[in-house]
Amino acid sequence: MYIHQLFLSLSLPSTLFPLPQHHITVTVSKKEELFAMEANYKYMDAAELVALLDNSDQCEEVAVIDCRDEDRADGWIRGSIHFPAATQNQSKHMELASTLNERGLTIAVFHCALSQVRGPRAAGRFADALRALNLQAPRVYVLRGGFEHFHAMYADSRPDLLCC
Predict the structure, then answer these.
(1) Are residues 128 and 52 both part of a single domain?
(2) Contact 133, 94 (CB under 8 A)
(3) Closest by CA position to 74, among listed 12, 141, 153, 147
(4) β-strand partners of 81
(5) pLDDT 10s digits, 2-37
(6) I want to staple 146 with a disulfide (CB 3.0 to 4.6 A). Which of 22, 114, 134, 142 is the partner?
């Protein structure tokens, strides 16, 4: 999507410049959402992730990928895959994409401490690897607020979701 399309869709009647519905729902104030659309991933709230992990039919199809480096030592989401940002490269993204696809995982949720840099960057590179390998799955998400937000929400009420 192009920025001028976004402005047109927000300021002009749709009868003058008809655009697909998904162009109208994005707002300029959500820069991360706009970038995510271009990078082929979406954001997922912590509550959505917990709902997936609690669903016995879906939890086996979800990969949580932790892109933190040494700060992972402070704790992590139980069952997450450690994929440190400092060691990532194109071949590792390709390998991860192939592995998750072969295991039948349908959702990959990336995060770092705040999901502002390392997590979104890894999600974008992972989405690129999926395209390069011509793979449709898994769908790619970034955990909104990252581990810090997840931990703040669930450390007391759901310690079963966390490891230290």
Answers:
(1) yes
(2) yes
(3) 147
(4) 65
(5) 333 333 333 333 333 343 333 333 333 355 555 556
(6) 114
Distance CA 119, CA 125 (A): 10
Same domain, 45 and 12: no
Render pLDDT for 69-78 as a digit per residue (tens, 0 to 9): 999 999 999 9
Q: Which domain holds residue 129?
A: 40-163
Q: What is the CATH number of the domain that holds 46?
A: 3.40.250.10
Beta-bridge partners for 137: none
Enumerate the active-site residues: 112
- 128, 65: one domain: yes
Task: Note whether 26 and 48 are same-domain residues.
Answer: no
The whole-model pTM stands at 0.78
Rounded Cα distance between 125 and 28, Å, is: 23
pLDDT digits (tens, 9 = 90+) for 79-131: 999 999 999 999 999 999 999 999 999 999 999 999 999 999 999 999 999 99
